[in-house]
## 1
Amino acid sequence: MAECHPVGFQWVMEAKARGAVVIHVDPRFTRSSAVSDVHVPIRAGSDIAFLGGLVNYVLQHDKFFRDYVAAYSNGPVILSEDYRDTEDLDGVFSGFDPETRTYDTSTWQYEGIEVQSSPGQRGEESADKSGDAAGDAAGDGAGDGAGDGAGGSHSAGGEDVGETAKGHSYGSGGPALGAGEPTLDKTMEHPRCVLQVLKRHYARYTPEMVEQICGIPQDLFRRVCELITSNSGRERTTSFVYSVGWTQHTVGAQYIRTASILQTLLGNMGRPGGGILALRGHASIQGSTDIPTLFNLLPGYIPMPHANQHPDLATFVEAESAHKGYWAHMKAYLVSLLKAYYGDAATADNDFCFDYLPRLTGSHSTYETVLAQMAGRCKGYFLMGENPAVGSANARLQRLGMANLDWLVVRDFSLIESATWWKDGPEIETGELRTADIATEVFFLPAAAHTEKDGSFTNTQRLLQWHRKAVEPSGDSRSDLWFMYHLGRRIREKLAGSADPMDRPVLDLTWDYPTKGPTGEPDAEAVLAEVNGWNAEGQPLSAYTELKDDGSTTCGCWIYCGCYAGGVNQPDRRKPASEQNWVAAEWGWAWPANRRMLYNRASADPDGKPWSDRKAYLWWDPDSEKWAGHDVADFVPDKAPDYRPPEGATGPEALAGDDPFIMQADGKAWLFSPAGLADGPLPTHYEPQESPIANLLYPQQRNPARELIGPADGNNLFHPSGAEALSEVFPYVATTYRLTEHHTAGGMSRWLPYLSELQPEMFCEVAPELAAERGLEHLGWATIVTARAAIEARVMVTDRIPTLTVGGRPLYQVGLPYHWGPNGYSTGDAANELAHLSLDPNVHIQEVKALTCDIRPGRRPRGPARLQLVRQYRERAGITDETGRDL
Amino acid sequence: MSVDRADRADRADPATASGYSDHPPRMGFFTDTSICIGCKACEVACKEWNHVPSDGLSFTGMSYDNSARLSADTWRHVAFIEQRKPLASQEPGQSGDLRWLMASDVCKHCTHAACLDVCPTGSLFRTEFGTVVVQEDVCNGCGYCIPACPYGVIDQRQGDGRAWKCTLCYDRVSVGMQPACAQACPTESIQFGPLDELRARAERRVEAMHDAGIADARLYGHDPADGVGGDGAFFLLLDEPEVYGLPPDPVVTTRDLPAIWRKVGVAALTIAAAGIASFARAPR
């Protein structure tokens, strides 16, 4: 965090000054480790074993917060007799179909709940793969993003997760449950209740096993267990902070799930000082998922309609909304969005122009898009503040895709590699591509920086903060808002008068933003007002509870409704901390409804009293018959703790007064996920797609449901792993990361002398033992090789990359900052050349945080010899299109 | 107050000693290296504000330190020191055996500043805040100040010839702002303020760290009795000064000049006298 989020890290340092103990878990010793109390070195890709070990410790030593778990989690719920655990089935769960590599979730259901139908849609029709990951990959590719579907999005039920890979798109709520009431055992002793299932599932994740798998010494691991458990409970809370080190794995979503289980057991959710905090890759990544740059979501995590499944508005609403909780009002959110898009053209008679919305026909994530480019199906591409030729995993594939386009528009500050690959990219050097043969027409348009425009940032706390232009952009540089508005305006001018129905969705758009100044810059605040929305009288709305499904309200993003309440730019508020309480509700504005902490009902006990005075945050005030506290209640404001839903209730009324997790179908925190995940109801340790280690816990080596991008004409090949023959050709674990001095793929830093001089060129970090084994010299050069590419880097020999003992043998890791490419002041080979595309099946993020490689002294070969070296390695390791693709 | 004590107090307050009668309190930096996270925002903010040129691209291999040292083109410099020593932990005895020290170095703005003493042009001067500043439009590039600095801070810029160093953002401080580096520091490792307050705060901080079992913590440059009369920019360190590239016992290089000149004078007189005597004794 100190390394990549130094400004936010000031609050960790403040906490430390107030006595907080800071534990840093990382394969390398970073700037965070340097100021932490404990550094825990870990083998990249083994975190579920580590976190599962913590879960096991908590359960074995009875350290969980029993009252909290019994009341607020699904720990007491009894599972169906049909459920089989990985302990029973050698590392897979019941319901797995090895042919399709997907799970049928019907055996994961609760006893007493009707099993959801499993429609088994397959093939192209239902290949509704999606990617929050894609959006982030779009932002900065392999470096960041990921897991940024954290808000998740919504889709009906868990029935088709496996087939359609819609697991992550569960919106503001979790997946639906079937009809009926689950059978409970409040003592949590029943052998089939979730808590006991959990206990058995993690029973073998012992300190000894953690040491064997992760390389963490047992006494150090036990110390971490003690620190975390002694700092959790009624009086104290512990928080977890993660970034892409957890997400960019074939089991990334399950990493976060393991932390969720641990934090729920310890009673650290919905309480001050608790939680699981996702740090985003760069400013406003949260905003770019809320109002998404993702192919599969509409603003506010409303799913993008599917071509075959959603013929009209009624079908869509029926399929995608929920029966309980706030997601039951999804139609009001969607209709208000359509009114914001299409204004007067949207009427009840025409389904509010629902048919104007684009439809999914399959996965259109960033990696599928690249394959479509290579296949000639995708012909045009906008890159806006994105440098995939450096920042995306398997960067070569990105360039090969772009080389097959008709046109490419790059908007950035400088001539980044994604704008110049056609004349000086690696494939030009090796002779694989010739500039004269590339037909792609490339347009470069200079972009304005955030200091040169008005707008808002949404940070990971869902906090919107307005910023104002400090200086005019120079030359032809323009804001993204300017570009999109004027592009739309010109297209609409060209289409004006067209009678072609195909042009109506563009012509009917409300596209009337006021502009100002000599460049015609649109007024960003007018966009904020549109996002907030208006009522039938044209007055700004103040809360999403005011939204209607009859077309009388407009709202560009329902979760942002209220950000312009009273016609006031709420994100622009800057009341000093000294003039308000510590929650600081008048600094900026947080969605939803200016709540600063989600699920804060859990900070009080079932009766509505704070669990402890020290951790009081929200409580039921019996006098006023309302929830009171330091923050806006994340609960119906006057729903009493003893409220019980009447028979047949729907929407928020269907949840009880002691169901704090209001976006879940049952209001409970899920220790066990009966639906919603593509790769299992409980997190399980699998080895990464590429690993030098055999899975010590199960015969199943890798996540059986992981998503593999095709061999792509030999451009996306995998290494043998673990016990497989010739895995020793790639004996080392490689992991990519960022440095404080540079920003993602370098577009904002490698062209700046002041930043470039601080980290002037690409380097790799290796332990002294590995340097000795391979003859690497400090300050010398090394060549790092995978089946995808060979790159070179200067060598930094350092104790900060510790040599671990894993499975009784020394394990060496190669640290690779991924900022560099051939352009700019500060240059070097891109680490992402080495990476492959195997993805988490829930969010479709690439596994760049743990892969295997070889490293050798000296610079890489030039020209065609570079390809020859990679080919030799493939032959030595016996790699074919099929390697690493078995279950 | 006796004349003697008043004289000593004047010497301890450099602005007064320099002839300012009515001046603001002495301002300075307290750099608490124990909470530095090595982000180098201070280096960049300094260069941005003061238009200090880039120092060139050089991969040094000295941990994450590629700016290497304070120089004419680097007025804040963050040192990175990798050690086989335990972390400075709040949980004594519970950390690994690796320690990574980071420390942002800067001009010390000495109470007795040799650079100032030797400057023949008056380019270097003492401000009303007690800081030491080079005037770029007066400096003639003679370079006397460079060997005079006991810390090796001030430096001549190549191709320019003039001497450059931290001004403690004289322009910003003059209008009530804090220096760029302190403003940019996210963890308040660099603290700016009246020197008296900073010294008191630093004493409390060291005590608290000692109480927490971090015995290595010590102050550097805070003591008015040291060889430079105390620094206007002082530090909390976690190891010996040498580890950070700082001299353990800096002495103002002009300290002995009066004595030297006195001795030189005596020697010259002696030689002259001897010469005269030799003539006087010369046989006719």
Note: The CA atoms of residues 78 and 192 of chain A lie 5 Å apart.
## 2
Amino acid sequence: MAKNISFTVRYWKQNGPKDAGHFETKQMSNIPDDTSFLEMLDILNEELINEGKEPFTFDHDCREGICGMCSLYINGTPHGKTERGATTCQLYMRRFNDGDVITVEPWRSAAFPVIKDCMVDRSAFDKIQAAGGYTTIRTGQAQDANAILIPKADADEAMDCATCIGCGACVAACKNGSAMLFVSSKVSQFALLPQGRVEAAKRAKAMVAKMDELGFGNCTNTRACEAVCPKNETIANIARLNREFISAKLAD
Amino acid sequence: MWLTNSSIGRKVIMSVSGIALILFLTFHGCMNVVALFSAEGYNMICEMLGANWYAVAATLGLAALVALHFVYAIVLTLQNKKARGNSRYEVTDRPAKVEWASQNMFVLGVIVILGMILHLYNFWYNMMFAELVGAETMYAADGAYWISATFANPVYTVLYLVWLVALWFHLTHGFWSALQTLGWSGKIWFNRWKCIGTAYATLLILMFAAVVLCFQCRALCCGACC
């Protein structure tokens, strides 16, 4: 049985990357606790529009936890404290209490400049992906199934790495602004499969070089990234990337 | 050069220099334990090292390692601060699996360096340095004397214990982090290294702390009965 709760939302307003930004506060009343966090923000925006104020800008798309668009830093945790690994869209108001103060902030990282309010530019991730996160294979005819045998454990591990949706929570949570969890997951998903092994060394070098060039920080193994990852990526991926990168450089 | 111009390379420098320093601490810890059992035995080691060429060369090597580790810590910290951007979160929450030490390695490192300076002043300055400059002292190779003299003062005992606690925190993270950086980790090895690292750091620090506490106790007991 849903119950209604009332709480205060402090949300970040910022007009572009150069603006200093500030918090605004809104009292929300009688919100059913089975409302999703994003639906709650929709209600907030409806109220702001009705009051003649500028609505609060935030990223969202599929709202089913697979696109990686949502990016809110809620009460000190990227995506908020969801029931299990999930993004902001799968955070429900039942996780909050009557009378709470909910602070909503953008991902704060030099590599993710604020576009407006809590909407940040994460195209740096696209640039890293474009630097080597693919295989250069002419597709041609569809191959026979099982033409290349892959152990189940490797296939599963590669799939787990590939579930990284590139939301950027790892960078947001990292005190070093490091993108290693994202990059290592993307490198791993190919490195674990025979099709990806062919270009593994080149890929690791290119993607790390692009990551460094874009101003992400140096990983110091604090594990904040894996603690907040909505897809439960682990720092075992980072160890794999280190392995791939170091052996590629030593082989040069 | 990939070791200096890539983020992973810079971490490899931290990792390898850190592992080398842990190996040095292991040697130093084993040497110290001798003092618990035999002042003569400890002084024999002190004489063997003394200001001989190999001990001076090893000291210079160590100084270079510490400098490398510290300079790169500063470089990485500054780069990471820049990567974090200018705006700070209003509300932060440290997840349970994030160790306090892992987020405070630089501060812990600064405490370790300060403790090391005090330690060099207490021992190295009176021993190897005194021998090198040819100072007229009969205690240059009498390590046991300097241990007794230093830990007769409770202020030094407390300072050394604070230093050792900071070093313990630094090592519990540094140990597995170094191996993670070298890529020798994964879902299984992470837990193994974390466990081995904590046990190793604890044993190592207990070896150092035992000497400090033992000599402090001896000074107190001797003061009471003499």
Note: The mean pLDDT of chain B is 94.
